[in-house]
Amino acid sequence: MRIGFYIHHSMLKAGGIFTYSIGILRLLLKSDEIKSIVLFTSPEVKKNLTEFDNKSKIEFSILNRNSFFTKIRFALSYFLFDTYTVYNKYSSGNKFLNFLKKFSISINPYNSLLKKSGISLFHVPIQYSPIYGTKIPVIITMHDLQEFHFPGNFCSAERIHRAINNHKAMYETDKIIVSFEHIKKDIINFYKVPENKINVCPPPFSENWFTTKKETDWQSLEKKYSISKKYLLYPAATWSHKNHIRLLEAVRIVNERIPDIKLICTGNKTDYFSVIEKKIYELKLEKFVKFLGIVPEEDLIGLYKNTSLVVIPTLYEAGSGPLYEAMRYEVPVICANTTSLPETIADKRFIFNPDDEVSLSNLIVEMISNKELFQENLINSRNRMNELSKIDYFKNFRRIYNHFIK
Predict the structure, then answer these.
(1) Domain limits at 182?
(2) Residue 211 falls inside a structural domain
(3) Is 173 in contact with 138 (CB distance < 8 Å)?
(4) Same domain as 83, residue 17
(5) CATH number for the domain harbouring residue 366
(6) What span, in angstroms and rounded, lies between the C-alpha atoms of 40 and 8?
(7) 316 is a domain residue
(8) Alpha carbon distances (Å) from 159 to 236, 238, 242
(9) Is residue 226 part of a domain?
(10) Which end of the chain has fewer CB atoms surrounding its CB within 10 Å, N or C?
(11) How many CB atoms lie within 10 A of CB 81?
(12) What predicted TM-score, i.e. pTM, was given to this entire model?
């Protein structure tokens, strides 16, 4: 079995989706049924994939997206396919629209790369494939449809962008993978996609998804980031649904009871960070909160292992990487009672209402001050990881692959 696997050119800023992609790739490498994997990515991202350089199963197919002519081809290809997508909804079967679709595919730089690769299918572990409509089956992972649940988190342009790209993803791909049942239900509900086109394939939750096994020691972290121990940790890009604002409000309350507690946040600083920054000053938390941005993986591992508590207050999550990472490293963690998080942590004592900063602050204080609860949290994480490690995660992917190979 020879398959193609896609690592997006902007993956390093994608946070959890990048680690998800690495986790799936490692899972595929362990399978004896997969003889070779062609890894499609960019020169910039390849520099961060050194762990796969000497893997006999891996072949790299590198596309320099910074080339002027490549940019032009992508821009024209996507414009034509989007035009086809929008107008085809109202006038299906139009010969001119079909011509636009075929022409857009022919000039897409990935078209020739896929043809030359000799792969049987193209696995894209993100919501949107870089190409549709080829003779090679395309499989995507749909991570979320949160715009239907939190439309206020998206401006008009973002909603239009997601509507067009979701439409392409739903109807132009051959199979849709989701990690959780609730996402499958959303797809069926909002897009009327046939149920048999969607497969629930949990990723290898018990495995380490980081690309490195190194960790930065505490002394180096302390010096590099000017931080001190006794801190809460929240690794998440600053999207509004990640709920940093409510966490800040909870930290202000906690700070009145535990004056030396700090909050450290890592992850990509989006445009929404300006709102968060304003809230920090409004709550007078400048001395107690640090946003470090994207940090090297070895630093993040070190931050996990030295934290007093990982807090995950997100309002919507397809699957929380930080939750699994905290449980893997057996560091204390609490999470919101949203989407898949409660079933992941599987203990009501360690979940909270993300809209209630008072109850959140109370749970934070209790976790830090109650040694017995603290230890029970670690035991729960250890037990959950043991349970998750017994699952055959590849079987669902195998079923999809074999469907297309046969």
Answers:
(1) 2-205+392-405
(2) no
(3) yes
(4) yes
(5) 3.40.50.2000
(6) 8
(7) yes
(8) 22, 18, 18
(9) yes
(10) C
(11) 22
(12) 0.79
Both structure tokens of 309: 């508590």
- Beta-bridge partners for 311: 334
Q: Is residue 66 domain-shared with residue 117, that is, in the same domain?
A: yes
**Contact yes or no for 233/310 (Cβ under 8 A):** yes
For residues 241 and 153, the answer to whether their CB atoms sit within 8 Å is yes
Q: How many distinct structural domains can be found in the chain?
A: 2
Lateral strand order in the sheet of 175-178: 58-62, 36-41, 2-6, 121-124, 138-141, 175-178, 198-200
> Mean pLDDT by 10-residue block, N- to C-terminus, for the chain (406 residues)?
85 67 87 90 86 88 90 93 82 75 92 92 92 92 88 85 91 92 92 92 74 84 91 92 94 92 92 93 93 91 94 86 88 91 91 94 94 94 88 86 80
Q: What is the pLDDT of residues 209-262, one digit of tens each?
A: 666 678 899 999 999 999 988 999 999 989 899 999 999 999 999 999 999 899
Rounded Cα–Cα distance for residues 332 and 311 (Å): 9
- Six token digits for residue 119: 């792969």
Calpha distance 276→238 (Å, rounded): 8
**Tokens describing residue 324:** 């699994």
Whether residues 104 and 226 share a domain: the answer is: no
DSSP 41: E
Strand pairing category for 36-41 and 58-62 = parallel
* 301 and 210 Cβ atoms separated by less than 8 Å: yes
CA 227 to chain centre: 27
Length of the chain: 406
| Claim to verify: residue 191 and residue 225 sit in the same structural domain | no
